[in-house]
Amino acid sequence: MFRSLLTQRLQTAFDKAGITVPDDFTPAVVLASDTRYGDYQSNAPMVLAKQMRTNPRALAQQIVDALDVTDLCEKTSIDGPGFLNFTLSPAALASHLLKSVTDPHLGVPPVPTPRTIVIDFSAPNIAKPPHVGHIRSTFIGDSLARIARFVGHKVITDNHIGDWGTQFGMILHGWKTLLDTAALDANPIAELLRLYKTINAQTKADPAVLDTCRHELVKLQQGDPENKEIWTRCVALSLDQLRTIYAKLDTHFDHYLGESAYNDKLAPLVDDLLAQGIAEISDGAVCIFFLDLEALADKPCIIRKTDGGFLYATTDLATIDHRINVWKADEIWYVVGAPQELHFRQIFEATRKRGQHANLVHIAFGSILGQDGKMFRTRTGESVGLIEVLDESIERAATVVADREGFTAEEKATIAEVIGIGAIKYAELSQNRLTDYKFSWDKMLSLQGNTAPYLINAYVRTRSIFRKLASATDSGATGSVASYTPPTEVTITEVTITDPAERALALKLAQFAEATHDVLIDHRPNTLANYLYELANAYHSFYEACPVLRSEGTMRDTRLLLCQTTSQVLRTGLNLLGIQTTDRM
Ligand code: ARG
Q: Which of 41, 79, 199, 387 could form a disulfide with 174 if both were Cys (CB 3.0 to 4.6 A apart)?
């Protein structure tokens, strides 16, 4: 990665020039904000000069005099108040291109110190359908898991399903009085939801029903065999259906340890926290207080209610024990909506009080809005079901490819699925996760702009060059989508980069490394999405400016290699966002 190479060279230059820098100082090298001056820039001379109370430009000159970057840069300049600007040489870009094309990681270096990271995402509640709000957690979590693995971390994905909430009191009562077994067989999540909603409405009208539900819940918690059996069936049925959705989304979990997995850990955990003095009894409840923290001073974390019941927070503390003690987690990432921020602050602080060492991160996100700028809902005011959204997206994508020629109906269906699911994922992942965004079918399915169809189409264009190449060299079979195997790619050993569009594309391709690593700094997949969009644009400009198959010799080789690497980076990059590609569309 050019950025870290330049960083290392700067550090060597400090030594060589006898500049003593503070122990914790790493010179920041970033992509140039103004590419007229160079490809990368560093403000290190300014930062150091301030600390050393000396002239930044003079210090910059001292650094440049000691700097050896002849193998990387054609130009190094000092600009403005003391910026260093680096312009990579065509030879360095060419050799990077040659190396990365055969590298399974496409030139993305592994992290120096891999960590064990547990990623907690999706986690819908049983007996309530996963709705469009779960989109964000599922897509962001899956993408972060893919990227963290790609750069060499050990990643454990865990779906902390809400399978033990108070909603089960209503489900149990509904099951016993209202169950429609045929409907349950047909669509268990929908039937469970109907039970929940009907009983919930009844409780509003008649408080006696609420008492019955509470009673059913207590019986379940005390291990009543009948209620336990109903509960087990509800969980199993819901999980089956959830797994079908995840398969469709190509999202996989290493574990499905729902809330109920920790039931028998809660009582001993609370006792232990009391014995250690970390928790205390307050008005009959057991609480952890954070009096030393201004923001939480009046917001204790309750871990046992006065009636003896345990809470969401108690389960989360027990879950952390498991992840740290059994899985040896160095980090736990929670991809959960912003409204739960207080909950996570409390359990993170409680964990700190317990002396547990793991880096806990709440990766929050905002809401998905409808076109009217309000919460995204169906016309009847219900929250939108995830399955319905996926189906609708695939259907709409099908109309986009309906009139394409040269595809069988089956091929078109496959393409519609790739584009439909890709479009929804990309609409999510190209956003800054903290901002609310408007859900717009027209925008996300458009072939123009920063969309999945646009990027998948860019990938298709890279493939079409190789199809033409293959048909020019062998019998000319282009193959169908299903039977199509990419033609043997070119093996090239010599590359020269001359045209500015070639250079711009080669530089973008090399920056796949920075884009991928940067996602994990602040857990934002949109960094990678935006990079891929820029790459697709660079490819289009290159494609306009530089004929590939009609060129000759080393120039043709170089251009083929640029096409090949673009193809690989687009496919791999989209895959890191959980998005599949198709070779033709
Ligand atoms: N089931 C919860 C919900 O839908 C999310 C769980 C998130 N994970 C956790 N460890 N608390 O709101």
A: 199
